Target: Cytochrome P450
Amino acid sequence: MGSQQSGRPGRRIPGRSRATWALSYGVGATAFRAGARRGDLVARLESDRALQLAPYDVYDELRATPVHRGGVVWASTDHAAVTRVLRSDDFIVGAGGAELPGPLRGLTGRLLDPWAAGPVDPPSMLATNAPDHTRYRRLVTRAFTARAVSGLEDRIRETAERLLDGLDDGSSRSGSADIVERYAALLPVAVIADMLGVPDEMHGRLLEWGNIASVTLDPSLSWRDFRRAEDAMRSLHLWFADHVRALQADPGDDLISRLAVLQGEEQLTDLELRATGLLVLGAGFETTVNLIGNAVATLEAHPEQRAALRDDPSLWAGAVDEVLRHDSPVQMTLRVAQRDTEVLGVEVPARTAVVAYLGGANRDPAVFDDPHAFDLRRPNAGAHLAFSSGAHFCLGASLARREAEVGLRLLYERFPDLAVAGHPVRRDTRVLRGYERLPVALGERVRAG
Ligand code: HEM
Model:
């Protein structure tokens, strides 16, 4: 195991927490609110709940130029420009406040509590650049290749069947259930936990901590929500450190056991191992839940396409890609120019932060005909950027696709008449787009086997 990291586990240092919040979220939140009052489009998108729920008209407006020069941050919803930002070496992920003014730059990194580091804090892969990023990524890629994932298919199917049996056991009174809570959230956490050697009894707590911590992805966050998220991250770190110790004593055939015994140049420090493991774990269940939920809601609104899926299950793969395009579970990411550069004719000075709206690029009419329509037979649905592009392209893309395809197909085979009933509630997050609650009537069951 690598060197011990500084910082006392489990204890908040109040001044440090407050300063971390102020630099990472407080400054941004204030700037967005002020910008929104001036009518700045990106600031409005980031601070107005109504636009958060229905951002697509503003995305269209922003597309008037390949890169929109916002008052707080720049942004793009243009497919070609977003692709270039994500793939170009001129842009990096903005770890350590690279976009902040001079004296503040680098301070966030120094303030960071290593026992509460979240998915957008270094050394998470999402917040590191080459060469460290390349090193971490190389260690975990193998577990998530298309080939490795096709080997998991039986396991995904068994897990989905078991969860559907649970839905079917009469505990869902009068045949109704919150399909997010009872299915869409449970399938991904069971699959990724299994891959990481995490025991079944931890699923509930992981979901709870993950839900609280996922707000840290958003650009603005209240002090209160930040503190809750920091506490949840701290619980995750403490639990994960114990998990690693248990696997070192008794290694299994799982990714964390393999990472924990690396030696020599590949060896990870304690913090690197926690950051990598917790990112893979969290990314594994906090995103796919939204894909499955968004698919159920979208198919409810398009009964004729749902009927087509029943008649021809081979359409599921295309349908999943079209949901990813049409209602992207991750709406945006951020990059910072590391030198003066240019994107499709727009000059971008060094240290400019650019929001890459994946959900906006996925509605670009230059790439997708009639982009606001949902069409599961769309020939180029797979050209979406829902999994990002370039060095940080989603590591779990094959796994997410497979979980959604298998999970949705089995859900509708078991409950062909499933229908949304009651009031769906969207999650109150900006980066992640999905449902907090999606009540459904299950209808007549078709027994398995
Ligand atoms: C529908 C489901 C999913 C969506 C929409 C999604 C989306 C994304 C996106 C957009 C990024 C890149 C962010 C950026 O460029 O800044 C990303 C990165 C990542 N995803 Fe996913 N993801 C999903 C499921 C998964 C799953 C199941 C895993 C499980 C392993 C996973 C693991 C990761 C990891 C580890 C990264 C960081 C990669 C890096 O920085 O090199 N994701 N994901």
